[in-house]
Design a protein that fits this description.
D-amino Acid Aminotransferase, Chain A, domain 2; 3 domains; 26% strand; alpha+beta; single chain; seven-stranded mixed beta sheet
């Protein structure tokens, strides 16, 4: 059997059997120079972290090394390798294989897990390209926060290889401190959220140069994460600032869908909050025209708060909504009406539901089975200010069949009229039209 060979000729031991990784030396007079000597071609990923992590212990025989890339790092030699106590703002990952044997404070442990996942993803993308050894990748500039909210120093946009139809839309994603184009890979095969579903998102809109209630959407992102046992690495203010930076990278007035997305990388049944990661997406997406949609009753129901995390905009809830939507489309309808567990109307599969009857607006009262939408709450306030009676109450499906108007509110389309419920045809009515007009005036500050 031939001895194992190193693919990269510039690595030590090329052309001979693979040797164990050498021990990390005690920091020299210029630790940064030592770190630069250890950089490997196209296998280095980095990210910024501004918290005090405490102590990191590097196992010298491990397949990965973690060292602080700071010129003033203080390292001492121990039986297990190098112990570095420092306020670490950047951690570089050096990939030698597939094992990780290291212990650290919980927050640093999360950073390490995250960086390992990034390094593995990077290796997968480069496996078929085999870049020449002379091409070296410097640590990414990352993101630095001068305070809890202001000021975020955002990096320039980086290219990412297209991955399919999702890239046909113009899309930017803020991941690991930099903007990426296209549809970058996020989760690993063994990431906790991949198989346990611990992930949340929120959706907001930018259109015609305005971003109505963006701050409220960012605040709900944090609440949803907390409800699911996640811990956002960014505050709501920081998420909002990153989104506004992404919006500014498109021509003014471009209709955009704005989506913070958080997920867990580790955990058993419950997620490990310290491993929460975030991707912030800004994607070109025109608002649908208010031409009217058709709807039917679905057999699939919304869960109760005792059976699902209905107090969060959790990814896991959308499988049930997706089944309702698929059922409706299989019958030739655009939307599905979903009931709650005891048979009251809850919402449409993808938006909050409204009816108009005898000059008043009616919408299901929040009972914990559906999300009390931000656009829904805004429309309630606007209609009441305009003198329209708004009733939040329990609705039966028969109420929809007998309504003067039927419409939806939600982030994707804002206010949309229904033109058909089961076999009954409707026309957009005055209350839906007024609600849409009032919302646009509010969005534009009129």
């Amino acid at each position: 059997m031939k001895p194992a060979m190193d693919r990269h000729p510039d690595r030590p031991g090329h052309g001979a059997a693979r040797q164990p990784a050498p021990r990390l030396p005690v920091a020299a007079a210029d630790p940064q120079a030592r770190i630069n000597d250890l950089l490997l071609p196209s296998m280095v990923m980095a990210a910024n972290y501004s918290s005090r992590f405490g102590t990191i212990v590097t196992e010298t025989g491990a397949s990965y090394r973690f060292v602080p890339s700071l010129p003033h790092a203080k390292c001492t030699e121990t039986a297990t390798g190098a112990v570095c106590a420092q306020t670490i703002e950047r951690v570089a990952v050096f990939s030698f294989g597939s094992r990780v044997e290291t212990t650290a404070a919980p927050l640093l442990r999360a950073a390490i897990d995250h960086l390992v996942a990034v390094a593995r993803s990077k290796r997968l993308h480069q496996a078929n390209r085999r870049p020449p050894a002379r091409h070296r990748t410097a640590p990414a500039p990352g993101i630095r926060f001068a305070s809890r909210r202001r000021r975020v120093m955002l990096p320039a946009m980086a290219k990412h290889e297209p991955l399919g139809k999702a890239d046909q839309a113009r899309a930017l994603h803020f991941v690991d401190g930099k903007w990426l184009e296209g549809n970058p890979l996020l989760l690993g095969a063994w990431s906790h959220a991949t198989w346990m579903g611990a992930a949340i998102f929120d959706g907001a809109r930018a259109f015609e140069g305005v971003t109505p209630d963006l701050d409220l959407h960012c605040q709900r992102t944090i609440r949803s994460a907390n409800a699911l046992g996640l811990r956002s690495p960014l505050s709501s203010g920081e998420i909002e600032e990153i989104l506004r930076d992404g919006i500014a990278r498109f021509p003014r007035g471009t209709p955009l869908y704005l989506r913070p997305f958080l997920w867990s990388e580790d955990g058993f049944m419950a997620p490990d909050p310290a491993t929460t990661r975030i991707a912030i997406s800004v994607v070109e997406s025109p608002l649908p025209e208010p031409k009217g949609f058709s709807a039917c009753l679905s057999k699939w129901r919304r869960p109760s708060p005792e059976t699902a995390p209905t107090d969060a905009k959790a990814v896991c809830l959308y499988a049930q909504a997706g089944r309702a939507s698929a059922e409706a489309r299989s019958k030739g309808y655009d939307e599905a009406v979903m009931l709650d567990p005891i048979g009251h109307v809850a919402e449409f599969a993808s938006a909050n539901l409204w009816i108009a009857k005898d000059g008043a607006a009616h919408t299901p009262v929040p009972n914990g089975t559906f999300l009390n939408g931000i656009t829904r709450q805004r429309i309630i306030k606007l209609l009441r200010q305009a003198g329209i009676e708004v009733h939040e109450r329990s609705l039966a499906f028969q109420d929809l069949l007998e309504a003067d108007e039927l419409f939806s509110t939600g982030n994707y389309g804002k206010v949309m009229p229904a033109s058909r419920i089961e076999e009954r045809h409707l026309q957009p009515g005055p209350i839906c039209t007024l609600a849409r007009q009032l919302y646009w005036e509010y969005a534009h500050g009129k």
